Amino acid sequence: MKKKFKDLFKVNKESIREVLLWLIGGLFLLFITEFLLRGKIRYVKLLLLNKPGVFLVNFLLILILTSFIFILKRKKTFYFLMSFIILTISCVSKYLYKVRGVPFTFSDIYSIGEALEIAGNYVTLPMVVGVLIFLILIISITIILFKQEKNNKRIRSLSNVLLMIILMITFPIITKYQYDKGNMSYIRWDITASYKKNGYVFSTIESAVKYIRVKPKGYSKKAIEEIRDKVDEKEKEDNRKITGNKPNIIFIQLEAFMDPTKIKEAKFSEDPIPNFRKICDENKGYMANVPTTGGGTVRTEYEVMTGNNIDYLTPGEIPYNTILKGKYYNSIATTLKSQGYGAHAIHNFQGNFYTRNNAYEKLGFDTFTSIEYMNGYEKNERGWVKDKILTKYIKKALNSTEGSDLVYTIAVQGHSSYPKDSLKLYDFPIKVSGKLSDVDKNQLYYYVNQLKETDEFIGDVMDMVDNSKEDTLVVFYSDHMPALNLFQNDKFYLDAYEAPFAFYSNFEMNNFDFDKIEAYNISSLALELAGVEYGPMEKFRVYLSDDKDYESYEALLEYDMLFGKNYYLKNDEKPEKSTMKMGLNDITVTSLEYEKDYMIIQGSNFTENSAVYIDNKKVDTIFINDKTLKIKMIKTGDTLQVKQLGRNDGLLSKSNSIDLLFSDLAKK
Fold first, then answer.
1. pLDDT at 2 over 60
2. What phi, psi does 417 have (nearest 5°)?
């Protein structure tokens, strides 16, 4: 019996071969994943030479992921599939890094729907065909391997299993040692830098592990109340004047907006952003540190709206898709509504993209006008709605109430992807020259001409404000740097995590003396300039900004309000359940008319996204104008209703219902 037990640990040729192939395969996978992340072989060599401990951590992690071959029968099948998963995620990450400047994180899984929605702007038909052929090949190989290994021996030597166990024990010890030495650290404000410092495989898995919400050290009711006491004491010392004017406040988030003249190698036939530059030249333009680059718009949007630092969430997390699914939360909207403001959101894109139709309600907005509630808009060459349509709906929002209004506007025209052959495809007014590669010149040619039109929209808003009889403050800010090829160069001199913002008003404003700030402080500045009261998060930002324990307080407060017991908020500050209306005006059906083989639906506020439903079943709808829809005559039915549909036919809102009679429907 003892002899048989010893035989289980006996090392044989098969077990040695299994371990050697496992080690060689692990090195191969590590090399490929790091090469895809870093872009050059010499950067992988530098990691090995300068940070062998980090290299070892990632190598051990790959070995752990693939070590299950020691206890499975179908060893080749498992190893093949695991390698395929690791390499596929690495390739996807490389592509995402190229498109938006940030590699793949676990949080991206929550945004698959949104990614598929805009994939047409990035993915070509040859790419789709190539992926399908590749998948068929992978499935075929998997089936062949699976059939070949049905009679395999499960465990060739318990020594190999013991090696697997030792790995799992030593891995966290070595990882902790590398963190303690400073060779590894989580850089929460720069996901890409964090990946490059800690290695690709480790960082990708870390992005999933960080979804476990961990209570920060020192969190307690007493600790939060002490922070609140400090805030309240500082507030008593604040001699800032709260004006009675309560000006309208307009936030305008500019998609991928930057000053392209800062690119030294480029020359332009005219200034693409004269209106924005005029604001900046009047000392009302600044730079902000933003939490994303090339994409991830809602991350900056969330910071500005809530005053929260998104770095304390999971890497790459989109809180609209996670936290705000079921939680009401304080924002610039709830702060201003408590002071008598109306709160409106406007976006010239789909209302249920990033589940904004739900998130904005949770953040306290009264209305949300998305593209499904707009008429008369134009699209640019890449299919994005032009920003000039927004001025019309900003005016409507301001005129929708008698009092002061917050209008939070999200622009979209400058969105990537930026074509690499635009010089052949388009004839734009602004020409680009200079010491640039063909790719960079083509991308800039398209990009700056989109900026030109966005800047014209900025000029329209400035004119609107100048001609308004009501005091109005506008906050223009960029969500992130554009996903230009230039920013993929590690030696590029512009900071990919800085973006411009500016203030414009028709009343006297104070000047600020700073170089740049964090995006989550923009709302605090806006409230100060407007002469209105701060919200609970803005109070913390303003009053304790110089406190030596500011960062530890910040971590405690964000946990408290997002996942904790809300000890920080006073009763009158806690967000209440609210309802939000999609669109500024009701969509109504008033009457039906019959014209030969068609039924004419008369009403108000219809758009191209209006769809007629008979007995809750969608029928083909022809949009005539904002007062008229048309459908083919039907023979039966009890009720008719018009619904506004977002992406994937998601319901945004619906009209009143009209009863139908069979005899009426039979008329021609």
1. no
2. -85, 155
